[in-house]
Amino acid sequence: MAPSHALRCCKRALNWVPVLFINLVVAWSYYAYVVELCVFSYLVIFHIFLAMFIWSYWKTIWSKPASPSTAVSKCSLFLMKKKKLKQNVFRLVQFNESIYILQPQTAIRYCDFCQVIKPDRCHHCSSCEKCVLKMDHHCPWVNNCVGFSNYKFFILFLAYATLYCAVICATVVQYFIKFWTKQLPDTHAKFHILFLFFVAALFFISIVSLYSYHMWLVGKNRTTIEAFRGPVFANGPDKNGFSLGFKRNIADVFGEEAKYWIFPVFSRSVYQCYTMAKKLLVLSHLGLNVVLPRLLKVYSNILN
Ligand SMILES: [Zn+2]
Ligand SMILES: [Zn+2]
User: Fold this and answer.
1) Please, which residues have CB less than 5 A from ligand 1, an ion?
2) Which are the catalytic amino acids?
């Protein structure tokens, strides 16, 4: 085995350490709560939040990051050469009740590693070694890229992790007080209870702040990358360049139907995703950029 290959394997194995750590903490919290504390009346709610937490965590870890398609890339370049693309773009925009505007872009972004044209909001991840659509960040705690394919799952993972910790804190606090007033029987269970409260409170504080930050980003239709460095359009950088208004920004991540919002299932309509992905690809190949709302007017002027 070549040394570089062995090193790569080692690095890949090490990347799973934070995930293993989270799993061990959750497994211990389960043991401490269900076996050591074991208060029957709390067990139902505890298991509901635990199940939702594990479900969304699992989906965040195992959702393959969506990458720009080389096939579509080639197809669009072909169309571009045929000079028919402009008409197609206008048609796409017309049928997608679009609220985007086109603006000239100085250069088409291209990834030398993957050899694909990068659509807007797509970035190359050096850990995953591929381009990721609507990349938010690479998260070591799930050993995966958080982006177009799993952003909703990631948000739900944070939400249910917060609720899981909140349930533990709220139900254990009475025993925690009893520990300090020496009312608990002198068994090793009391140390589990003590640490259970401390660990849950610590995780609650850190996760709830991360969750609030991401909900704020969702409301603005902004990724973490864009929050640090606003996307550059023809008229300069604009952090709000992709915002569609609060309601549509929420639907852009969670889907149109509210009944699916709390479940870690893919709930954006296939049509919406297909047209959006296609539109992003087509527009960036054209050398144009996809921006924002002032805009139907512009299209109706062009189309009429
Ligand atoms: Zn790439
Ligand atoms: Zn990544």
Assistant:
1) 111, 113-114, 124, 131
2) 139
